[in-house]
Amino acid sequence: MSDGKVYPVKEAAKSRALVDKDQYMAMYKESVDNPDAFWGEHGKRLDWIKPYTTVKNTTYDRNNLSIKWFEDGTLNASVNCLDRHLAERGDQTAIIFEGDDPADSRHVTYRELHQETCKFANALKSQGVKKGDIVTIYMPMLVETAVAMLACARIGAMHSVVFGGFSPEALGARIKDGGAKWVVTADQGVRGGRPIPLKKNVDAALNNPEVSTVEKVIVVKRTGGDIQWQEDRDVWFHDIMADASVDCPPEEMSAEDPLFMLYTSGSTGTPKGVLHTTGGYMVYASMTHEYVFDYQQGDIYWCTADFGWITGHSYILYGPLANGAITLLFEGVPNYPDSSRIGKVVDKHKVNVLYTAPTAIRALMAEGDQYMKQSSRESLRLLGTVGEPINPEAWEWYYNVVGDERCPIVDTWWQTETGGILISPLPGATDLKPGSATLPFFGVQPALVDSDGNVLDGATEGNLVILDSWPGQMRTVYGDHERFILTYFSTYPGTYFTGDGARRDEDGYYWITGRVDDVLNVSGHRMGTAEIESALVAHPLVAEAAVVGYPHDIKGQGIYVYVTLNHDADPSDELKTELVQWVRKEIGPVASPDLIQWAPGLPKTRSGKIMRRILRKIAANEHDSLGDTSTLADPSVVEDLIEYRENA
Ligand code: 6R9
């Protein structure tokens, strides 16, 4: 792989970018040698109400863990995204909304977005929301979703956005964990021409007696479709907006006050509420957005993510708006009305920067070039990817066909936990290698360690850790600080453990190889095997289940399920279909099993641990390299499973 092609920095990119190779190296050195001076300077990119006098106050010592940035400064995130741009570019577009229907689009200026945000902030207050409260947002991709997030930020409430593709059960679990009293939703969403019953899902989630904290459900009218209405609980967004004042003084927030939480899957247990605070997150999101995408005033920037994921938070909303950017918000899907859509939206809005996921690229690639060729895409200058490793074939297709060999690709590696991009090329500074996320951003010190935690030198492969803090780092797991310390700072003490494996080549370039824990990455969506397993065993006919990932051409990883049934159950194809539906209902369509294999028994150690390593090999059809099976309680189980796999 490292022997593959190298794409040197393009002259066009270099001549306009903020930094070239030498400047990158000098700034990087300064950022790790003297983080206080470096971030002290770059923190000024925000408007502070009370300027900070201290910058970095962090320790990764697990007995004494503390992560604080700019801690005595105060600010408001919505002011940085809105108010401060009004004088200079109040009438400039902030958001280009492109609807699911290609005939539906509109521009929202900074002034309009500011007004709507202030009004909704007042409306939230009228519903009792105060600083420090949690508001769950379960919405399609609408301007109102951005307004709801910014309005929370304005009054110091934490938003907790739950992906609109999640099931009522998954939504309910996330509401329950945080104890939100307010949910913002829409009557229905529309994706690919089909309605998504969001309000109905909220009703179902709240019907569960265990989800008991919600007092008000605020409903945006998107389709006008039929919904049920609970008089004492449900309110229309447009009703509470109607007489809300446009004047809403921002709440003065400490740099370390929470901005939002966002649930993400880990290797064990239920999803974790990743908590980000205000100052460091905003500095880091805006700075990475500017440098990685070489964002300059007037550029039209499009990130195709959903607000339900961290990419939507940092690189549709907070980063771009803090930079006064024009950010495109897309309600639809890449293959509706057909697979030419992405290219056509690029042409329609003259998009300069396109940031999307490998899974979307692979899906479009599989449809053939003719769809992409229906657009000129001549406005494009830069391409980006995020969410999972991009295979070199998909990279080359993105580069050659989508970008017409003209646009550098920034392969950005980061996580919900990191708040912003940690490893990525900078377009004017970094030679590209297809499939490599390349080099660290300013202030980020990656390292590879072996399983004993020894830091490895030179060209090598290992577990990816980060040696010191950066401003955008998460601060805690909501309601469970112990879990935060245990998950990220205890595996390799003194470092932040990413859960990813990586290789480093002779040039110091990082190649992310994927998760080394039990987290799946299906189409760029993170999912814990434990979550899917617990959904399966909740089915009355399932005795035991084990879930592993296996290589999948489009999704990157597919979901492979081994199920042991109760002895009275009939292992039929109908039951397989039923189990797929069951998981979709319990978690959501993103968690649909791709393959289910009946397993008379599962390979376990004598202490009862399922040996996933073996199950992964069987799922990948790598029967010859199962490794040591002698520690199994019953090695014959493996033979049975292989036989089943071959006859499947
Ligand atoms: C931003 C985001 C994080 C996990 C991460 C890694 C994988 C993300 C990647 C990548 C290879 C990239 N990942 N970007 N792997 N190359 N450019 O995706 O956050 O949803 O929390 O997922 O995604 O495995 O650990 P999140």
From TrEMBL:
Recorded GO MF terms: acetate-CoA ligase activity; AMP binding; ATP binding; metal ion binding
| Sequence positions that bind CoA | R191, G192, G193, R194, T311, N335, S523, R584
Spell out the post-translational modification annotation for this entry: Acetylated. Deacetylation by the SIR2-homolog deacetylase activates the enzyme.
Q: Which PANTHER family match?
A: ACETYL-COENZYME A SYNTHETASE
Question: Taking every annotated instance into account, which residue ranges of this chain make up the domain AMP-binding enzyme C-terminal?
Answer: 531-609
- Any one Gene Ontology cellular component term annotated for this protein: cytosol
Instruction: Using the record's annotations, give every residue carrying the modification N6-acetyllysine.
Output: K609
* Biological function: Catalyzes the conversion of acetate into acetyl-CoA (AcCoA), an essential intermediate at the junction of anabolic and catabolic pathways. AcsA undergoes a two-step reaction. In the first half reaction, AcsA combines acetate with ATP to form acetyl-adenylate (AcAMP) intermediate. In the second half reaction, it can then transfer the acetyl group from AcAMP to the sulfhydryl group of CoA, forming the product AcCoA.
**UniProt: ATP binding residues:** G387, E388, P389, D411, T412, W413, W414, Q415, T416, D500, R515, R526
Q: What class of enzyme is it?
A: ligase
Q: Which UniProt keywords apply?
A: Acetylation, ATP-binding, Ligase, Magnesium, Metal-binding, Nucleotide-binding
| GO BP annotation list | acetyl-CoA biosynthetic process from acetate
The Acetyl-coenzyme A synthetase N-terminal domain extends over 24-81
Q: Which family does it belong to?
A: Belongs to the ATP-dependent AMP-binding enzyme family.
The protein's organism comes out as Alkalimarinus sediminis
* Protein's name in the database: Acetyl-coenzyme A synthetase
Q: Which residues bind Mg(2+)?
A: V537, H539, V542
Q: Which residue intervals define the domain AMP-dependent synthetase/ligase in the entry?
A: 83-466
- Say yes or no: keyword Protein biosynthesis present: no
EC identifiers of the protein: 6.2.1.1
Give the catalysed reaction(s), semicolon-separated: acetate + ATP + CoA = acetyl-CoA + AMP + diphosphate
Cofactor(s), names only, from the UniProt record? Mg(2+)
Xref: Pfam families: ACAS_N, AMP-binding, AMP-binding_C
